[in-house]
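Re-running the complex after MR caught last week's input typo. The corrected sequence lines follow. Everything else is unchanged.
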Amino acid sequence: MGTRALKAPAGTRAALLLITFAYVGVMLLLPLGAILFEAFRQGIGLWWAAVTDPDARSAIRLTLIVAAISVPLNTVFGVAAAWAISKYSFPGKGLLVALIELPFSVSPVVSGLVFVMLFGANGWFGPWLEDHDIQIVFALPGLVLATVFVTFPYVARQLIPLMTVQGRGEEEAALTLGASGWRTFWRITLPNIRFGLLYGVLLCNARAMGEFGAVSVVSGHIRGETNTMPLHVEVLYNDYNFVAAFSVASLLALLAIVTLALKSALEWRYRAELEARR
Amino acid sequence: MQRAFTWTSDRMVPGARPRSFRLPGFGLTLGITLFWLSFIVLIPLSTVLARSWAGGWEHFLEAAVSPRALAAYRLSFGVALLAAAANCVFGLIIAWVLVRYDFPAKRLCGAVIDLPFALPTAVAGIALTALYADTGLLGRPLAKLGVPVAYTPLGVFIALLFIGLPFVVRTLEPVIAQLSRAQEEAALTLGASRFQTFWRVLLPTLAPALATGFALAFARGAGEYGSVIFIAGNMPFHSEIAPLLIVTRLEEYDYSGAAAIATVMLGVSFIMLFVLNLLQRWRAPRVA
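Corrected-run output:
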């Protein structure tokens, strides 16, 4: 009797389902469809021309380079932070975890601004950098720094709860049996966290390739030089070149779809390993 | 719980000489963590604070609370609050449906919820603008009804509604999954109506998670830039968000002005961080 009582009346169920479908359809699927529609509305030829344009190609290359530098940096950091935080107890741990997550609540624009304040022409190190002919802002290093800032917490945040639940028993067993610290890490820890790590890297990469606000502040918008793909989309859009803007945007939408598909596959196959349910 | 599994060497091999098996790597990993955190996050953020004071207290106030800046905060924080509240309502319904109901395309629905996390914000921005402009699929009928969306504060609301949803759904889902059905059953058996059961039994249990989702969506929405600037219209005093005003000040080479507004935004970020930590403490005993 209890379970029957728990089931909501058919009317309520139908209403809630309808709201869900309508909301997901209108708020989420429709914008995705709009990108693809706008990108291909004037034929595949224009789409191809837009994504193979020299400026677009240079934007794609730059986006890949920025992600290829910042994602590994934050991956190493994330594993190190998760190791220190999950395997030991020390004072100030709560504060450390909170500070690691800080970039999530900082506006992307502020994230970019900080590096202009540090390394821009009027920044703290501006004159010194100019004397030594080093360009950080309006160049690749600035883009990388801004991207590292906004993607800072992704890997660490995924691994900290996972490794905390896993504890240190297996590592201690390996050490007891004579394995070295590094060997323990490679043979025990890494296999235990691999899917969580992959998950964190996946999300980190999606954000790194798609970041707009932070890189927009440090890039200087030099066409063909410091424009990443999202910035190139903005330039094209502001030039009223809508088909080209949506064509380049469709590549980023594809990245989002692939990311979501991989993420769902990971969640579905390895849910237990991602959450390490006891 | 974890302690129970911790082995010590002398227990494993009785009679062996007691060695302390300290897990190595603490110094190295904590060192990397602190270095990277300082280098990427803490030192850069502190320069903004320092910069905003460099021009003196009066200049800071002039830039931070100018009428134009106040209008921008009102829009950014006000709309972020409204959008986070709306997302709590829809997020609760969607999370509930995703956890409790079985229906076709459930897995697809669950995957699509994270689209705002995965889709670059600028792409979301131009897509929403294309839909809600008065020539767009949704914008045209709305404009005919006398509700223009794009290039008004309502456009900002739509963008933040889009961005904030997954924060609420993803925070609520695990908590709804862990809800004990016995409580609901007991309430219903004892004669409570469905509405009473929801209001008196379910909602209090879900409140900490709902508040966390709200805070996350608000923090993200208040600082959001990419998805908003295309649809917002960016008119000073009307549809200009605070992050955009920072960019404008920077383009005018008004560094301390940009830093002053950034400092106010950072202040709110720190408050939200603090609030989220308090919420986590509120949630902890219930989840465990």
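None of the earlier attempt is carried over here. The radius of gyration of chain B is 24 Å. Chain B has one domain: 56-287.
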